[in-house]
Amino acid sequence: MPVAPSLIVFLGGMGGSPIEEQLGEALAEAALDLLEEAAATSAFSDIILVAGNDRLDGRLPADVIVDRDAAPFHFGRRLAALVRNREIERPVYAGAGAAPLLRGSDLAAVARHLAATENTVISNNYFSADLVAFTPGDALQRIEPPERDNLLPRLLHDQAGLESQPLPRTSASQFNIDSPGDLAILKLAGGGGPNLTRYVASIDFDLSAYEALLRALVDPSAEVVLAGRVGSQVWRHLEPETACRLRVFSEERGLRAAGREESGQPRSLLAFHLREVGCERFFAELSELGDAACIDTRPLLAHLGVRASRSDRFWSDLSRADMIEDPFLREFTAAASEAPIPVVLGGHSLVAGGLMLLTEAAWRAEDQRLQD
């Protein structure tokens, strides 16, 4: 009989500036929720936390094994060494912010399916994953170790020959935490575990643009502009689930997973236009295309060669131009905040699981409005 899978959760050392520390704390709380949910099931033979910090010391379930980082970090080599040294046959890997909406029953379902299969890789997103379960564990020795988790299921399929079986695309499987903007979405929409929910409740966010977006999503007379790494599966999900019309500019999918972000290759139609007309006119003209907008800014910034710090990008996601040092990103963010329509800025998660979660929240709010 096959041994039950092992859960491996990576909690990195996010930190530095206050906004990065805030996200780091949130990721720790999300990891704790994930570990507690898994520990409450009998689905895993081992539960392992790979930790680059001590944020969860003294708070972990008793049966969680902590494996400390002791060398320069490389995701693929770190995971391969852990699986090899512990002789793990069926690993279930998750990043700390990978699946804050998944419950223990969801994790157990993945574990049961993995335990009943051979030569399989299961992921929440084949093209850009942060939750990956696979067997056999030694398939990692047959691939080029990736620097990031995003590429792992594709490498296990293409180089190790495992059959790919992606999870159904729902808000629970697709929403992950990459930016403080994702925490703002979670505060508005809810659904996180108890530790993360308590932490997010303590943060003061300006949710006005998100709330305006919610109203537009359920308004048959409205049009919403989506721009950035909008996947076809997100568009297919939103078409029947929203009442508004959608205007989509899908650009640079695979920007980070394929390593294009650092290559100088990214190209964005929006960035070409922005460079020609400037920030103020860009958002004035954007308002003629829709009643609200969601913009994944990373393709645009990569095209323009803007090397803003992670802290600056995070502050931009929260529309806090006053906290941004990079002059262009500060101007762009201020113009977005002053645009004639509500504009929500963010990263890939905004135009993926974030939008799916916001759509669900929009209909709940509309149902409540109709009942009042």
Characterization of the model:
The radius of gyration is 21 Å and the shape is globular. Strand 1, helix 1 and strand 2 form a beta-alpha-beta unit. It is built from 15 helices and eleven strands. It has a seven-stranded mixed sheet, with helices on both faces. The protein has two domains: 6-170, Alpha-Beta Complex (Spore Coat Polysaccharide Biosynthesis Protein SpsA, Chain A); 206-371, no CATH class. It is an alpha/beta fold and 372 residues long. It has helices at residues 18-39, 75-85, 104-115, 152-158, 171-174, 180-189, 194-201, 208-217, 232-241, 269-277, 279-286, 298-304, 310-317, 327-337, 353-371, and strands spanning 6-11, 46-51, 64-68, 91-95, 120-123, 131-135, 163-164, 223-228, 245-250, 292-296, 343-346. The protein starts with 5 loop residues before the first strand and ends with a helix.
- List the quaternary state of the chains: single chain
Query: How many structural units, i.e. domains?
Result: 2
User: How big is the Rg?
Assistant: 21 Å
- Proportion of β residues? 5-15%
Note the total helix count.
15
Could you report the average pLDDT, rounded to the nearest whole number? 94
Question: Which segments are poorly predicted (pLDDT under 50) over 5 or more consecutive residues?
Answer: none
Order of helices and strands: EHEEHEHEEHEHHHHEHEHHEHHHEH
Task: Give, in spatial order, the strands making up the sheet with the most strands.
Answer: 3-2-1-4-6-5-7
Separation, N- and C-terminal Cα atoms? 56 Å
- Count the beta strands: 11
Structure class: alpha/beta
How can the largest sheet be summarized? Answer: 7 strands, mixed
Tell me the helix content: 40-55%
| Inertia-based shape | globular
